Amino acid sequence: MRLFAALVLLLAMVNAQAVDLEGDQLARYHELNAELRCLICQNRSIAESDAPLAKDLRTIVEKQIAQGRSDAEIKQYLVDRYGKWVLYDPPLDSATLILWIGPFVLLAIGLLVVVLMMRRRREAPPERPSLDRDRLTRVLDEQTQPTDSASSKERS
Amino acid sequence: MMRWRLIVPVLVVFVLIVLLGYGLTRRPDILPSAFIDKPAPAFDLPTLASDRERISAADLKGSVTLVNVWASWCVACRAEHELITAVSRRTGVPVVGLNYKDTEEDALRWLGRYGNPFAVVAFDPSGAVGIDWGVSAVPETFVIDAEGIIRYKVVGPITREEMNATLIPKLEQLKGADS
Protein backbone atom coordinates (compact mmCIF):
# COMPACT_ATOMS: atom_id res chain seq x y z
CA MET A 1 0.00 0.00 0.00
CA ARG A 2 2.82 2.36 0.86
CA LEU A 3 4.54 1.40 -2.38
CA PHE A 4 1.35 2.12 -4.27
CA ALA A 5 1.02 5.51 -2.63
CA ALA A 6 4.63 6.27 -3.48
CA LEU A 7 4.03 5.28 -7.09
CA VAL A 8 0.95 7.43 -7.29
CA LEU A 9 2.86 10.32 -5.83
CA LEU A 10 5.63 9.79 -8.34
CA LEU A 11 3.15 9.67 -11.19
CA ALA A 12 1.44 12.77 -9.92
CA MET A 13 4.78 14.53 -9.83
CA VAL A 14 5.66 13.41 -13.34
CA ASN A 15 2.59 15.01 -14.84
CA ALA A 16 2.59 17.74 -12.29
CA GLN A 17 0.93 21.00 -12.99
CA ALA A 18 1.87 23.91 -10.80
CA VAL A 19 -0.03 23.33 -7.59
CA ASP A 20 -0.24 26.04 -4.99
CA LEU A 21 -0.45 23.75 -1.98
CA GLU A 22 2.05 22.68 0.61
CA GLY A 23 2.70 19.90 3.08
CA ASP A 24 -0.45 18.32 4.41
CA GLN A 25 -2.69 19.94 1.84
CA LEU A 26 -0.47 18.80 -1.01
CA ALA A 27 -0.56 15.23 0.31
CA ARG A 28 -4.36 15.41 0.51
CA TYR A 29 -4.44 16.78 -3.02
CA HIS A 30 -2.50 13.82 -4.39
CA GLU A 31 -4.47 11.33 -2.33
CA LEU A 32 -7.82 12.71 -3.50
CA ASN A 33 -6.71 12.81 -7.12
CA ALA A 34 -5.78 9.14 -6.93
CA GLU A 35 -9.21 8.29 -5.53
CA LEU A 36 -11.19 10.14 -8.18
CA ARG A 37 -11.97 8.58 -11.50
CA CYS A 38 -11.41 10.36 -14.75
CA LEU A 39 -14.80 10.49 -16.49
CA ILE A 40 -13.50 10.21 -20.02
CA CYS A 41 -10.67 7.73 -19.73
CA GLN A 42 -12.68 5.72 -17.22
CA ASN A 43 -10.01 3.37 -15.99
CA ARG A 44 -7.59 5.99 -14.82
CA SER A 45 -7.70 8.30 -11.88
CA ILE A 46 -7.63 12.03 -12.45
CA ALA A 47 -4.09 11.95 -11.06
CA GLU A 48 -2.96 9.74 -13.93
CA SER A 49 -4.93 11.24 -16.76
CA ASP A 50 -3.91 13.96 -19.13
CA ALA A 51 -7.45 14.55 -20.38
CA PRO A 52 -8.56 18.19 -20.20
CA LEU A 53 -11.47 17.24 -17.94
CA ALA A 54 -9.12 15.49 -15.50
CA LYS A 55 -7.03 18.64 -15.44
CA ASP A 56 -10.13 20.71 -14.66
CA LEU A 57 -11.09 18.35 -11.87
CA ARG A 58 -7.58 18.50 -10.40
CA THR A 59 -7.89 22.27 -10.40
CA ILE A 60 -11.21 22.00 -8.59
CA VAL A 61 -9.69 19.70 -5.98
CA GLU A 62 -6.80 22.11 -5.55
CA LYS A 63 -9.04 25.15 -5.18
CA GLN A 64 -11.38 23.50 -2.72
CA ILE A 65 -8.52 22.24 -0.57
CA ALA A 66 -7.12 25.76 -0.54
CA GLN A 67 -10.55 27.00 0.55
CA GLY A 68 -10.35 24.64 3.50
CA ARG A 69 -12.99 22.15 2.40
CA SER A 70 -12.78 18.64 3.80
CA ASP A 71 -12.11 15.56 1.68
CA ALA A 72 -15.70 14.43 2.19
CA GLU A 73 -17.05 17.78 1.03
CA ILE A 74 -14.91 17.75 -2.09
CA LYS A 75 -15.97 14.21 -2.93
CA GLN A 76 -19.60 15.13 -2.37
CA TYR A 77 -19.20 18.12 -4.68
CA LEU A 78 -18.05 15.81 -7.48
CA VAL A 79 -20.58 13.07 -6.70
CA ASP A 80 -23.36 15.66 -6.98
CA ARG A 81 -22.20 16.37 -10.50
CA TYR A 82 -20.93 13.07 -11.86
CA GLY A 83 -22.56 10.47 -9.64
CA LYS A 84 -20.88 7.93 -7.39
CA TRP A 85 -19.17 6.66 -10.45
CA VAL A 86 -16.47 9.27 -9.96
CA LEU A 87 -15.30 7.58 -6.76
CA TYR A 88 -12.85 4.71 -7.05
CA ASP A 89 -13.78 3.59 -3.56
CA PRO A 90 -17.55 3.17 -3.71
CA PRO A 91 -19.45 3.98 -0.51
CA LEU A 92 -21.61 1.32 1.12
CA ASP A 93 -25.26 1.95 0.27
CA SER A 94 -28.23 0.15 -1.23
CA ALA A 95 -26.88 0.36 -4.77
CA THR A 96 -23.44 -0.99 -3.90
CA LEU A 97 -24.56 -3.50 -1.28
CA ILE A 98 -24.05 -6.47 -3.60
CA LEU A 99 -20.60 -5.24 -4.42
CA TRP A 100 -19.63 -5.11 -0.78
CA ILE A 101 -21.23 -8.21 0.66
CA GLY A 102 -21.30 -10.34 -2.50
CA PRO A 103 -17.81 -11.83 -2.02
CA PHE A 104 -18.58 -12.72 1.60
CA VAL A 105 -21.86 -14.37 0.61
CA LEU A 106 -20.03 -16.41 -2.01
CA LEU A 107 -17.37 -17.35 0.53
CA ALA A 108 -20.06 -18.43 3.00
CA ILE A 109 -21.77 -20.55 0.35
CA GLY A 110 -18.45 -22.17 -0.53
CA LEU A 111 -17.69 -22.93 3.12
CA LEU A 112 -21.17 -24.35 3.61
CA VAL A 113 -20.72 -26.69 0.64
CA VAL A 114 -17.34 -27.85 1.95
CA VAL A 115 -18.72 -28.44 5.47
CA LEU A 116 -21.70 -30.37 4.12
CA MET A 117 -19.49 -32.51 1.95
CA MET A 118 -17.12 -33.27 4.80
CA ARG A 119 -19.95 -34.14 7.17
CA ARG A 120 -21.55 -36.44 4.65
CA ARG A 121 -18.27 -38.22 4.07
CA ARG A 122 -17.78 -38.73 7.82
CA GLU A 123 -21.32 -39.94 8.42
CA ALA A 124 -21.37 -42.37 5.56
CA PRO A 125 -17.99 -44.00 4.96
CA PRO A 126 -17.72 -45.20 1.39
CA GLU A 127 -19.56 -48.47 0.99
CA ARG A 128 -17.41 -51.45 0.25
CA PRO A 129 -19.00 -53.33 -2.59
CA SER A 130 -20.20 -56.58 -1.08
CA LEU A 131 -19.33 -59.64 -3.05
CA ASP A 132 -22.28 -61.82 -3.93
CA ARG A 133 -20.58 -64.96 -5.08
CA ASP A 134 -23.73 -66.56 -6.44
CA ARG A 135 -24.55 -63.55 -8.58
CA LEU A 136 -20.98 -63.26 -9.77
CA THR A 137 -20.93 -66.84 -11.02
CA ARG A 138 -24.28 -66.30 -12.67
CA VAL A 139 -23.11 -63.21 -14.52
CA LEU A 140 -19.85 -64.83 -15.56
CA ASP A 141 -21.73 -67.86 -16.83
CA GLU A 142 -24.01 -65.68 -18.87
CA GLN A 143 -21.06 -63.80 -20.31
CA THR A 144 -19.16 -66.88 -21.35
CA GLN A 145 -22.17 -68.80 -22.67
CA PRO A 146 -24.54 -66.27 -24.19
CA THR A 147 -27.92 -67.81 -24.83
CA ASP A 148 -30.70 -66.40 -26.93
CA SER A 149 -32.86 -65.75 -23.94
CA ALA A 150 -30.06 -63.94 -22.08
CA SER A 151 -29.24 -61.62 -24.97
CA SER A 152 -32.88 -60.81 -25.54
CA LYS A 153 -33.18 -60.00 -21.84
CA GLU A 154 -30.22 -57.63 -22.13
CA ARG A 155 -31.80 -55.81 -24.94
CA SER A 156 -35.11 -55.28 -23.25
CA MET B 1 -28.55 -36.93 -5.22
CA MET B 2 -27.47 -37.65 -8.79
CA ARG B 3 -30.04 -35.19 -10.02
CA TRP B 4 -28.52 -32.40 -7.92
CA ARG B 5 -25.08 -33.20 -9.22
CA LEU B 6 -26.44 -32.53 -12.69
CA ILE B 7 -28.65 -29.56 -11.93
CA VAL B 8 -26.26 -27.49 -9.86
CA PRO B 9 -23.48 -27.09 -12.47
CA VAL B 10 -26.03 -26.40 -15.19
CA LEU B 11 -27.64 -23.78 -12.97
CA VAL B 12 -24.28 -22.18 -12.15
CA VAL B 13 -23.31 -22.04 -15.82
CA PHE B 14 -26.69 -20.56 -16.69
CA VAL B 15 -26.37 -17.82 -14.07
CA LEU B 16 -22.84 -17.10 -15.30
CA ILE B 17 -24.06 -16.80 -18.90
CA VAL B 18 -26.80 -14.39 -17.86
CA LEU B 19 -24.36 -12.25 -15.85
CA LEU B 20 -21.75 -12.22 -18.61
CA GLY B 21 -24.41 -11.43 -21.18
CA TYR B 22 -25.55 -8.52 -19.06
CA GLY B 23 -21.97 -7.32 -18.77
CA LEU B 24 -21.40 -7.59 -22.51
CA THR B 25 -24.53 -5.73 -23.57
CA ARG B 26 -24.06 -2.82 -21.22
CA ARG B 27 -22.48 0.35 -22.51
CA PRO B 28 -19.84 1.24 -19.94
CA ASP B 29 -19.07 4.50 -21.73
CA ILE B 30 -22.57 5.81 -21.04
CA LEU B 31 -22.70 6.92 -17.45
CA PRO B 32 -25.90 7.27 -15.52
CA SER B 33 -26.57 10.92 -14.94
CA ALA B 34 -26.62 12.26 -11.42
CA PHE B 35 -29.12 14.90 -12.51
CA ILE B 36 -32.21 13.05 -13.67
CA ASP B 37 -35.28 14.49 -11.90
CA LYS B 38 -33.20 17.20 -10.28
CA PRO B 39 -33.34 20.93 -11.00
CA ALA B 40 -31.04 22.18 -13.74
CA PRO B 41 -27.83 23.42 -12.04
CA ALA B 42 -27.54 27.17 -11.66
CA PHE B 43 -25.50 29.11 -14.18
CA ASP B 44 -25.24 32.61 -15.52
CA LEU B 45 -23.36 33.04 -18.78
CA PRO B 46 -22.91 35.52 -21.61
CA THR B 47 -24.58 34.53 -24.86
CA LEU B 48 -23.45 34.09 -28.44
CA ALA B 49 -25.38 35.07 -31.55
CA SER B 50 -28.33 36.46 -29.63
CA ASP B 51 -29.86 39.80 -28.70
CA ARG B 52 -29.84 38.68 -25.12
CA GLU B 53 -26.89 39.66 -23.00
CA ARG B 54 -26.87 36.78 -20.56
CA ILE B 55 -28.72 33.58 -19.87
CA SER B 56 -29.23 31.86 -16.55
CA ALA B 57 -30.91 28.72 -15.20
CA ALA B 58 -34.02 30.77 -14.39
CA ASP B 59 -34.50 31.38 -18.13
CA LEU B 60 -34.97 27.65 -18.66
CA LYS B 61 -38.19 27.66 -16.66
CA GLY B 62 -41.59 28.28 -18.18
CA SER B 63 -41.47 25.88 -21.08
CA VAL B 64 -39.96 22.56 -22.07
CA THR B 65 -36.40 23.13 -23.27
CA LEU B 66 -33.59 21.13 -24.80
CA VAL B 67 -30.10 22.02 -23.65
CA ASN B 68 -27.43 20.86 -26.06
CA VAL B 69 -23.78 21.01 -24.99
CA TRP B 70 -21.56 21.48 -28.03
CA ALA B 71 -18.30 22.86 -29.31
CA SER B 72 -16.94 23.75 -32.72
CA TRP B 73 -14.03 21.34 -32.22
CA CYS B 74 -16.39 18.46 -31.48
CA VAL B 75 -16.80 16.19 -34.49
CA ALA B 76 -19.78 14.33 -33.03
CA CYS B 77 -21.60 17.66 -32.54
CA ARG B 78 -21.32 18.25 -36.26
CA ALA B 79 -22.80 14.79 -36.80
CA GLU B 80 -25.85 15.43 -34.64
CA HIS B 81 -26.35 19.03 -35.77
CA GLU B 82 -28.94 18.10 -38.39
CA LEU B 83 -30.91 16.00 -35.88
CA ILE B 84 -30.90 18.70 -33.21
CA THR B 85 -32.33 21.04 -35.82
CA ALA B 86 -34.96 18.46 -36.77
CA VAL B 87 -36.03 17.81 -33.17
CA SER B 88 -36.56 21.50 -32.58
CA ARG B 89 -38.50 21.94 -35.81
CA ARG B 90 -40.71 18.91 -35.30
CA THR B 91 -41.58 19.49 -31.65
CA GLY B 92 -41.37 23.26 -31.46
CA VAL B 93 -39.17 22.91 -28.37
CA PRO B 94 -36.47 25.58 -28.25
CA VAL B 95 -32.87 24.40 -28.02
CA VAL B 96 -30.51 26.26 -25.73
CA GLY B 97 -26.92 25.68 -26.78
CA LEU B 98 -24.18 25.46 -24.19
CA ASN B 99 -20.99 26.20 -26.04
CA TYR B 100 -18.28 24.33 -24.14
CA LYS B 101 -14.57 25.20 -24.04
CA ASP B 102 -14.61 27.00 -27.32
CA THR B 103 -13.58 30.38 -28.68
CA GLU B 104 -16.20 32.89 -29.69
CA GLU B 105 -14.71 33.16 -33.16
CA ASP B 106 -14.74 29.40 -33.82
CA ALA B 107 -18.23 28.98 -32.39
CA LEU B 108 -19.69 31.75 -34.52
CA ARG B 109 -17.96 30.43 -37.63
CA TRP B 110 -19.39 26.96 -36.94
CA LEU B 111 -22.91 28.36 -36.56
CA GLY B 112 -22.49 30.41 -39.72
CA ARG B 113 -21.28 27.46 -41.74
CA TYR B 114 -23.75 24.79 -40.63
CA GLY B 115 -26.74 26.86 -39.55
CA ASN B 116 -27.86 27.82 -36.08
CA PRO B 117 -30.40 25.48 -34.49
CA PHE B 118 -30.24 27.27 -31.15
CA ALA B 119 -32.69 29.79 -29.74
CA VAL B 120 -29.80 31.10 -27.69
CA VAL B 121 -26.25 29.93 -27.04
CA ALA B 122 -24.64 30.21 -23.62
CA PHE B 123 -20.91 30.76 -23.90
CA ASP B 124 -18.77 28.77 -21.45
CA PRO B 125 -15.15 29.01 -22.61
CA SER B 126 -13.68 27.73 -19.34
CA GLY B 127 -15.98 24.73 -19.08
CA ALA B 128 -16.88 25.65 -15.50
CA VAL B 129 -20.62 25.44 -16.13
CA GLY B 130 -19.98 22.19 -17.97
CA ILE B 131 -18.57 20.76 -14.74
CA ASP B 132 -21.58 22.00 -12.76
CA TRP B 133 -23.78 20.19 -15.26
CA GLY B 134 -21.75 17.00 -14.94
CA VAL B 135 -20.64 17.11 -18.57
CA SER B 136 -17.92 14.56 -19.20
CA ALA B 137 -17.67 14.86 -22.97
CA VAL B 138 -19.48 16.77 -25.66
CA PRO B 139 -22.06 16.46 -27.04
CA GLU B 140 -24.62 15.95 -24.32
CA THR B 141 -28.29 16.81 -24.52
CA PHE B 142 -30.58 17.52 -21.57
CA VAL B 143 -34.36 17.53 -21.64
CA ILE B 144 -35.69 20.09 -19.17
CA ASP B 145 -39.34 20.41 -18.27
CA ALA B 146 -41.32 23.59 -17.68
CA GLU B 147 -40.39 23.61 -13.99
CA GLY B 148 -36.71 23.57 -14.86
CA ILE B 149 -36.22 19.93 -13.82
CA ILE B 150 -33.92 17.71 -15.87
CA ARG B 151 -36.01 14.79 -17.10
CA TYR B 152 -33.75 13.03 -19.55
CA LYS B 153 -30.22 13.11 -20.82
CA VAL B 154 -28.51 11.85 -23.94
CA VAL B 155 -24.77 11.32 -23.69
CA GLY B 156 -22.93 11.49 -26.98
CA PRO B 157 -24.46 12.38 -30.33
CA ILE B 158 -28.14 11.59 -30.69
CA THR B 159 -29.00 9.10 -33.40
CA ARG B 160 -32.03 9.15 -35.66
CA GLU B 161 -33.37 6.02 -33.94
CA GLU B 162 -32.98 7.56 -30.50
CA MET B 163 -34.55 10.79 -31.66
CA ASN B 164 -37.65 9.06 -33.01
CA ALA B 165 -37.97 6.39 -30.34
CA THR B 166 -37.15 8.36 -27.20
CA LEU B 167 -36.33 12.01 -27.52
CA ILE B 168 -39.33 13.27 -29.48
CA PRO B 169 -41.90 11.18 -27.53
CA LYS B 170 -40.33 12.42 -24.29
CA LEU B 171 -40.59 16.04 -25.40
CA GLU B 172 -44.18 15.62 -26.60
CA GLN B 173 -45.14 13.97 -23.34
CA LEU B 174 -43.61 16.76 -21.27
CA LYS B 175 -45.24 19.38 -23.47
CA GLY B 176 -48.57 17.62 -22.98
CA ALA B 177 -48.12 17.64 -19.22
CA ASP B 178 -47.23 21.30 -19.36
CA SER B 179 -50.29 22.54 -21.28
TrEMBL record, chain A:
PANTHER family linked: CYTOCHROME C-TYPE BIOGENESIS PROTEIN CCMH
Record function comment: Possible subunit of a heme lyase.
Residue ranges crossing the lipid bilayer per the database entry: 97-118
One GO molecular-function entry: metal ion binding
Keywords: Cytochrome c-type biogenesis, Heme, Iron, Membrane, Metal-binding, Signal, Transmembrane, Transmembrane helix
Entry's family note: Belongs to the CcmH/CycL/Ccl2/NrfF family.
Pfam family, one: CcmH
Name of the protein described by the UniProt record: Cytochrome c-type biogenesis protein
Entry GO terms, CC: plasma membrane
Highest taxon, organism lineage: Bacteria
Ranges where the CcmH/CycL/Ccl2/NrfF N-terminal domain occurs: 8-135
Organism, scientific name: Salinisphaera shabanensis E1L3A
Gene of this entry: cycL
Automatic annotation (TrEMBL), chain B:
UniProt entry tagged with the keyword Disulfide bond: yes
Location within or outside the cell: Cell inner membrane
GO CC term (a single one): outer membrane-bounded periplasmic space
Keywords associated with the record: Cytochrome c-type biogenesis, Disulfide bond, Redox-active center
Bilayer topology term: Single-pass membrane protein
Biological processes per GO annotation: cytochrome complex assembly
InterPro entries xrefs: Periplasmic_diS_OxRdtase_DsbE (IPR004799), Redoxin (IPR013740), Thioredoxin-like_sf (IPR036249), Thioredoxin_CS (IPR017937), Thioredoxin_domain (IPR013766), Thioredoxin_ResA/DsbE_sf (IPR050553)
Disulfide bond among keywords: yes
Residues annotated as domain Thioredoxin: 34-173
Domain of life: Bacteria
An example Gene Ontology molecular-function term: disulfide oxidoreductase activity
Assigned protein family: Belongs to the thioredoxin family. DsbE subfamily.
Name of the protein: Thioldisulfide interchange protein
Organism name: Salinisphaera shabanensis E1L3A
Lineage: Bacteria, Pseudomonadati, Pseudomonadota, Gammaproteobacteria, Salinisphaerales
